[in-house]
Amino acid sequence: MAAAAAAASLTRKRLRTSHACDVCRSRKIRCDGLSPCTSCSVARIDCTYGSEANSRGKTDLILEGVLRVEKMLQQMGANIVSPTTPQSLDRRQSLQSIITLPPGTSNVAGSPFADSRAHQPDQQQQSPPSESHRTPSEYPKNGNGSLENAVLDSMHTSTTESVLQWPHFDVFPTLRHGYTPIFELEQSRSPLQMKSTSLLYPLVSDQEMDAILDAFQSHVNFWYPTLSRQQVDKVRLAVKCFTPGVADDYTVQSCLAHLTMALGCASQTVTGLGLGADLSAAQLKIRTQQRQMGDLYFDHALKRLHVAHMEIASQAAQCLFFTALYFAFLRRPLQAWEYINAASAKCLLLLSYRPVDEASEEQERMRRIFWSCYILESDYLAELSALPPSGIAPIESSIPLPGVIPYPTHTTALQEEHSSLYFLACISMRRLLNRVHNLLYARNATLDWRRFPPVIAELDHQLDEWREVLPSAFGFTVDTADVQTEAGAFLRQRYLTCRSVIYRPYLMWMLSGSSAAENSSAREVEGCRLCLDACLLHILNLRGFAHTVLVDTWICSLSMAGAMLVLLAASRIPSLRKVMPHSLLTAGAHLSKLLKSWQLIMGNSESPSVNQAVRVIGEADGFIKQVFAAGDMLALSGGE
After folding, report:
1. What are the tens digits of pLDDT across the range 437-479?
2. Residue ranges of the domains in the chain?
3. Is the domain 17-79 a CATH 4.10.240 member?
4. Nearest-angstrom CA–CA distance, 183 and 386
């Protein structure tokens, strides 16, 4: 009996000690104690209990997990269907393969920017160790200490404000004169004014309601397909019950319905701007009324938003994400970021404690909200690099991509398919952009000309692969030709953004004086030309795309200001000015007209950040014209 009791006691102790497997312990998530546990089964990784507990640290476990994932992805890549096949399933698989392309697939290890010791000519450079024989301390990491390159490094050096600090603009003092840091501008803004009375209530007819929801489906739910058809039907039913007398329905469903209608009105406000035609006074009045209706719905949603904060469910996270989207529409980046973080926190919580029914619609909704937050958060971090990250990016490789579980979002199969593929394309592009920023512009990085050319070549190869697997509906040419769909035109803008930052190190190298500008190699000049062409095409192809105006006006204004600054810096180098087309001289006026017209449509409360970006664009445009005029005079006199 004593022996049996001792054995039982030992068994109980062993169960308590090893209840959580090694992987769940390292991730700090709950483990169900099965062998293998559910989390490891879903992730398809080895599940061990207490093995090598004293010899393996968290870094070793992370490294092992990453190497296993890379091995699986490389095996998947060998079996990927040709991207030229027309079937939507093949397109989805190809896009997913681009999304999950690991950093280890490159034949170049590490960042092209090394520490200052790498630039000492008398120091012998050692070859990087083989990928398969690296220890955790040898594996290349990003600025966050993570082994995943799709995390945007905090305090990276590719923001517009970082570019403005280049010493090459010291000769243009008015560029920085009166400039206020973006965070200070946004922090000093007055809070959004709530309506002081509940007497104002948005009442719409059934026909108007259908038009608003159709606009939401064609825009917001196309870009971020998170609201299911069943949820749309519930919103329609809730809106029909909206009356001033029953306006005190403080539930998550009521909050979600108001937010959906607000975003639908915002979608109506920005519809058709991509055509480029000037709006008449009557058309502007209609859009103003639509925006005001959206603001009214949003005001009522904010009064109910506390219920979303208190409830732990996917619809509550959805409310927080939709709130972030509307703040993006209002060009209030700090408030948008705040609610992205709140939505991300709920996502992390709900995805950490997975339900028994893993194949539920609720789980698919959470994953879609997760990826939507990932895209938006990265977009804001790209310009405000000191924003505290939410924590979703470091785990994105462990979250399944959207489409694993059937999740009907639209009434037609074609629209639903296009929406899903567009969402995957945006996710994959955002991951590639993060990888580019991490490899080329991480904090404390310095140029190493011996390493960045092959890394740039590999990143450019991945970018071209992304473009090749796009479905025909989103196809585009890399020029100023019209694109078949607005979605395709928006993706071209993303492509050009990525290409410009991929090739920017060539320009930075030439501007740094490390290479004599007039004696630069053909490869260096060509790299600069590719960067400058992408910047200029990015500017000239900008239109009032609904996705850009509704979600990205603030981000776009800063990005375009940065592009103009890059072009201004390059224009001062004669060898580069020769490869820059004279269409550059129309870029500033084109941007200023677009951004000012968007500000007008958005309402009276203009964004100080956008206004400042417009001023920088105008200043840069004037200096570019002066530089070109002076260069032409020198050329005529034989001095250039």
Report:
1. 988 988 766 666 777 888 899 999 999 999 999 999 999 999 9
2. 17-79, 93-104+160-165+412-636, 206-398
3. yes
4. 10
